């Protein structure tokens, strides 16, 4: 059954709001604090209220009485407009001895006349409750005087209408403003509105990929796996076990799944020399290359890990290896491969980058680089090459023709579709073989405990076989075997490897 488009959009919006609920909550809190601050900084203002009633004077003739009443109703709005006139304000200032000018006092006074009535409502605002009441009452009195002067017939006589104070202002007991509850409600509503609007706008403008399906559509490649974000040891490179010997974390299992999917990447012969790259820096390509190589070693393969990111090499520091000589030393003819290979954890052979050269593009695209990778391919079952990002520099584009396949690593919720597609197009443009993609640093929490059941299959005693070297490298150098067994094993996140002397 086809899901309606409106329902799909509603679900997408709901997921966007749920994903950014912390940001929305912060906006709501900021709105509340703004309302509270506005209340605290506001000066209390009191209001006094008086009322004038407009009536017709008593006459003997009934017809004349009706005419006078109609005359009064027609004049009520004009009388209300006279409330803030300069003559009235001048009299109020003089009576009360106020410091304001008449025009300033007029800003504190308002008058209104409900339609269909002969009432004039006067409201006066002041910082003092007594002042607000006095101003409202004084305005009412002087309005009556002003109307009397204006409506007096030429030559004298009684005016046709009568104005009287129907309600005098009492001293207000509480200020009219600020209103704390109203300010807090307005701040909360405004904060929520800003938070929700910003979250939805970011979702609409966000071109990053959050799922493997989105990544596969963007780069038109099979996705070999999703690697969860490492929230504990972000600076550590090698992830072998994160829950002690024999345990399985989501990240460790994700790398094992990547290894398995990579072995089935080709129907015929599996690729031997595999380059791992990304569109931009900081997408997890180095971690993916290292842990893919470690997972292949666990599968009993002879693996060589090559650091071909000659601009920002990281393998030597990440694995605790010598960085003085390596790939660049071999490429310029100063050493042979066997002279600079170093032994990493569990038999993983590592060829570090060596000194950073001034011309990495020329070195990586050279025939000598192709010869080095072919020689490594003959010596090892699999060669994993960590390369530079595709979009910032041309290093990987030149190197891509010397490898059997390229795996593109894309960071979830950060790398844009256009950036990932552009990197794939750049590699395809030079004839490189793209075999798949990996979605790294995913933040999906739904499966945090999905591998906890594996603990029931863990060995009770110390690990044996291939798991033994994982357990050993997790101990501090020099620790005794008995001490290692008596204390709970630390999570194995990174390991110092043994070093092979460079001749």
UniProtKB/TrEMBL annotation:
GO terms under cellular component: plasma membrane
Membrane topology, as annotated: Multi-pass membrane protein
Membrane-spanning ranges: 21-41
Region annotation Disordered: where it falls in the sequence: 474-503
Catalytic activity: L-tyrosyl-[protein] + ATP = O-phospho-L-tyrosyl-[protein] + ADP + H(+)
InterPro entries tied to this protein: AAA_dom, Bact_polysacc_biosynth/exp, LPS_length_determ_N, P-loop_NTPase, Wzc-like_C
GO molecular-function terms, A-Z: ATP binding; non-membrane spanning protein tyrosine kinase activity
Polysaccharide chain length determinant N-terminal domain segment(s): 15-96
Location, primary (coarse class): membrane
Top-level taxon: Bacteria
EC number(s) from the headed UniProt entry: 2.7.10.2
Subcellular location: Cell inner membrane
Domain AAA: from-to ranges: 272-411
Signal peptide: none
Keywords, ordered alphabetically: ATP-binding, Cell inner membrane, Cell membrane, Kinase, Membrane, Nucleotide-binding, Transferase, Transmembrane, Transmembrane helix, Tyrosine-protein kinase
Family statement: Belongs to the etk/wzc family. Belongs to the CpsD/CapB family.
PANTHER family: FERRIC ENTEROBACTIN TRANSPORT PROTEIN FEPE, TYROSINE-PROTEIN KINASE
Name of the featured protein: non-specific protein-tyrosine kinase
């Amino acid at each position: 059954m086809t899901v309606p488009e409106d329902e799909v959009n509603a679900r997408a919006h709901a997921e966007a709001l749920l994903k950014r609920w912390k940001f929305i909550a912060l906006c709501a809190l900021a709105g509340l604090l703004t309302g509270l601050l506005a209340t605290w900084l506001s000066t209390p203002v009191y209001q006094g209220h008086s009322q004038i009633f407009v009536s017709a004077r008593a006459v003997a003739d009934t017809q004349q009485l009706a005419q006078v009443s109609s005359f009064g109703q027609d004049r009520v709005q004009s009388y209300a407009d006279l409330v803030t006139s300069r003559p009235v304000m001048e009299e109020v200032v003089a009576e009360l001895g106020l410091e304001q000018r008449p025009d300033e006092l007029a800003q504190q006074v308002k008058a209104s006349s409900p339609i269909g009535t002969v009432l004039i409502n006067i409201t006066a605002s002041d910082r003092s409750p007594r002042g607000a009441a006095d101003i409202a009452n004084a305005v009412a009195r002087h309005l009556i005087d002003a109307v009397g002067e204006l409506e007096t017939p030429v030559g004298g006589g009684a005016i046709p209408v009568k104005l009287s104070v129907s309600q005098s202002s009492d001293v207000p007991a509480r200020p009219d403003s600020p209103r704390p509850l109203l300010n807090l409600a307005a701040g909360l509503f405004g904060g929520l509105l800003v938070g929700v609007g910003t979250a939805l706008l970011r979702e609409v403008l966000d071109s990053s990929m959050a799922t493997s399906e989105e990544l596969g559509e963007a780069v038109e490649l099979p996705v070999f796996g999703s690697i969860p974000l490492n929230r504990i040891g972000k600076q550590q490179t090698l992830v072998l076990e994160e829950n002690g010997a024999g345990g399985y974390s989501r990240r460790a299992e994700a790398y094992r799944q990547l290894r398995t999917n990579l072995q089935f990447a080709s129907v015929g012969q599996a690729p031997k020399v595999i380059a791992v790259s990304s569109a931009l820096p900081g997408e997890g390509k180095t971690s993916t290359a290292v842990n893919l190589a470690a997972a292949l070693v666990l599968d009993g393969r002879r693996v060589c890990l090559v650091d071909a990111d000659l601009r920002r090499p990281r393998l030597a520091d990440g694995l605790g290896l010598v960085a003085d000589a390596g790939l660049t030393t071999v490429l310029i003819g100063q050493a042979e491969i066997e002279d600079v290979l170093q032994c990493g954890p569990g038999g993983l052979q590592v060829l570090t980058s060596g000194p950073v050269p001034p011309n990495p593009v020329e070195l990586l695209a050279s025939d000598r680089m192709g010869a080095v990778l072919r020689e490594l391919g003959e010596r090892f079952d699999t060669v994993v090459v960590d390369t530079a990002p595709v979009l910032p520099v041309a290093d990987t584009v030149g190197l891509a023709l010397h490898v059997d396949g390229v795996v593109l690593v894309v960071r979830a919720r950060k790398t844009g579709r256009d950036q990932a597609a552009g990197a794939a197009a750049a590699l395809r443009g030079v004839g490189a073989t793209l075999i798949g993609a990996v979605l790294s640093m995913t933040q999906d929490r739904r499966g945090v405990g999905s591998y906890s059941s594996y603990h029931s299959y863990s060995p009770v005693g110390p690990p044996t076989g291939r798991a033994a070297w994982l357990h050993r490298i997790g101990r501090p150098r020099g620790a005794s075997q008995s001490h290692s067994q008596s204390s709970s094993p630390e999570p194995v996140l990174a390991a110092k490897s043994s070093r092979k002397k460079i001749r």
